[in-house]
Amino acid sequence: MAAYLSTAVVGVLGTILAAHRVRRERTLATVRFVAEIAQHVLLSPVPHRIGPLLIETLYLSAAAEARIGGDLYEAVPTTYGLRIIIGDVRGKGLPAVETAATLLGAFREAAHDEPDLAAVARRAETSMNRRATRLAGNDVSERFVTAVFAEIPRRHVVRIVNCGHPSPLLIRSGEVTELETADPAPPLNLGMHLPEAYHVDEYPFGPGDQLLLYTDRVTEARDRTGAFYPLRRRVLSWGPLQPRELLDRLHHDLLIYSNNHLHDDTAALAIYHLPE
């Protein structure tokens, strides 16, 4: 009788655990499905080619079930040329996603309307400030965004407005250069420190050149000793790569360097000017 009772108890417990596991798997599948829809809405696919420009993107989520967080990017072809944004929202969870959605919505509208890149950044800042005034809580001042606005017009230059974000890399003829701005602006939504006018830096960007924009989670990845990821040195060692190859190599290298432990979302965007 004891053996029969033990077998019955084990069978019941096994059935309960199996049912619980099935429910968890269904819930996780639902969460992932919703996250994929949210990612598609928030980070709409960018065009892979616009004239002589090839464009590729990379988005890595620290949590597989999340798929989307506070990192953002967008590339919009306009009458003024290709306009790009990449940014990183401070914070996590739904507030970060809402902030990212606000910024992307403002950028997508301003990119088509404003003839000057500085005005695009100003419009984005205005939208962020307007949203901040409607938010409750003590963490409103912490919901800021570091961002880079870039513009590639039809002539061979790239213009950049940097709002507290890591400097893009310019890859040209075996050299990798950080495009550091002479007068960076503060992150968006820090209106009390906003300068009167955004500073626009202009650099040559011609056939064969490639631009790599990324969030700070790339350079903040650490190895087992705690050393930060040396992005510029790594890119330089890889030699010339097409945008998709570059981002795939970056993805693979980040996972190896961090021992497959990326602690936050990561985004990157590469633009390559095809040779004439």
What does this structure look like?
The chain has 276 residues and is of the alpha+beta class. Helices cover 38% and strands 24% of the residues. The chain is built from 6 helices and 11 strands. It has a 6-stranded antiparallel sheet. A 5-stranded antiparallel sheet has the order 3-4-5-6-9, with helices on one face. A hairpin with a 2-residue loop joins β7 (169-172) and β8 (175-178). α2 packs antiparallel against α3. The radius of gyration is 22 Å and the shape is globular.
Topology:
Layout: H1 2-42, E1 49-50, E2 53-60, E3 71-78, E4 81-89, H2 93-113, H3 117-133, E5 145-152, E6 157-163, E7 169-172, E8 175-178, E9 201-204, E10 210-214, H4 216-219, H5 231-238, H6 243-257, E11 266-273
Antiparallel strand pairs: 1-2, 2-11, 3-4, 4-5, 5-6, 6-9, 7-8, 7-10, 10-11
Helix pairs in contact: 2-3
How would you summarize this macromolecular structure in one to three sentences?
The chain has 276 residues and is of the alpha+beta class.
Q: Estimate what percentage of residues fall within beta strands.
A: 15-25%
If you compute it from the alpha carbons, what radius of gyration comes out, rounded to the nearest whole angstrom?
A: 22 Å
What's the total helix number?
6
Strands, count: 11
What is the 3D form?
A: globular
Helix content: 25-40%
Write down the overall mean pLDDT: 83
Strand order of the largest sheet: 1-2-11-10-7-8
**Termini distance?**
86 Å
Low-confidence sequence ranges: none
What is the H-and-E element order? HEEEEHHEEEEEEHHHE
Largest sheet: 6 strands, antiparallel
Q: Which structural category do the helix and sheet elements fall into?
A: alpha+beta
